[in-house]
Design brief:
The complex is a heterodimer of chains A (about 110) and B (about 120).
Chain A: E1 3-5, E2 10-14, E3 19-21, E4 24-26, E5 33-39, E6 46-52, E7 59-61, E8 64-69, E9 74-79, E10 88-95, E11 100-102, E12 106-111
Parallel strand pairs in A: 2-12
Antiparallel strand pairs in A: 1-4, 3-9, 5-6, 5-10, 7-8, 8-9, 10-11, 10-12
Chain B: E1 4-6, E2 10-13, E3 19-25, E4 31-38, E5 42-49, E6 56-57, E7 65-70, E8 73-78, E9 87-94, E10 107-108, E11 112-116
Parallel strand pairs in B: 2-11
Antiparallel strand pairs in B: 1-3, 3-8, 4-5, 4-9, 5-6, 7-8, 9-10, 9-11
Classes of the chains: A mainly beta (about 110), B mainly beta (about 120).
Chain lengths: ~110, ~120
């Protein structure tokens, strides 16, 4: 069975704090893809990053960084120096066939 | 940039009405998807299509049908709307694996918030 778990339902931080959103996945497939999406209050799901199962390199994009570890089946997302505009629901997702399996999402609230 | 558009951001309908939700993508993607999103239930796949005139049921197809007459357009139809179909509906598209690495990504439209009274 395939599954994505985001154990943190809601996180609240003060602006400029660093915050890490956890994602743990389950799959028996050797080839798969992992994603992070951001859903601001407007509702649109905005694509942030894709990683394939053969590429364990961590990635940094501005204040965002991602840590992919196959050994622990985790794909965690860190926001450095958080800003109020980062407030949103963040979804981790897994795909190995046609279907995208989403986690339940983590609501991030960044307070000024 | 990939663009997925949905015909309405907000829609209010009455029970029993036939409802059409339209989705258009401009990236020549083969695959298109309809999801609904509800608090506590996350995103659930209703239907998807991997080619023109082709469709496959997702996890919760009951009460819905779809139409894909043209590659860029994927319609979700509620034959007789019911109050339990009040939800946020999200359309997405994705290219095929063998046409480039970006094609692995599913891109979403802005969503349609449907209220059935």
């Amino acid at each position: 069975a395939q599954k994505v778990t985001q154990a943190q339902t809601e996180i609240s931080v003060v602006e400029k704090e660093d915050v890490t959103l956890d994602c743990v996945y389950e799959t028996r497939d050797t080839t798969y893809y992992l994603f992070w999406y951001k859903q601001p209050p407007s509702g649109e799901l905005v694509f942030l990053i894709r990683r394939n199962s053969f590429d364990e390199q961590n990635e940094i994009s501005g204040r965002y960084s991602w840590n992919f570890q196959k050994s622990t089946s985790s794909f965690n997302f860190t926001i450095t120096a958080s800003q109020v505009v980062d407030s949103a629901v963040y979804f981790c997702a897994l795909r190995s066939s046609y279907k995208l399996i989403f986690g339940s999402g983590t609501r991030l609230l960044v307070r000024p | 940039d990939v663009k997925v558009t949905q015909s309405s951001r907000y829609l209010v309908k009455r029970t029993g009405e036939k409802v059409f939700l339209e989705c258009v993508q401009d990236m020549d993607h083969e695959n298109m998807f309809w999801y609904r999103q509800d608090p506590g239930l996350g995103l659930r796949l209703i239907y998807f299509s991997y080619d023109v005139k082709m469709k496959e049921k997702g996890d919760i197809p009951e009460g819905y049908s779809v139409s894909r007459e043209k590659k860029e357009r994927f319609s979700l139809i509620l034959e007789s709307a019911s109050t339990n179909q009040t939800s946020m509906y999200l359309c997405a598209s994705r290219g095929n694996v063998d046409t480039g690495s970006r094609q692995e990504t599913q891109y979403f439209g802005p969503g349609t918030r449907l209220l059935v009274l």
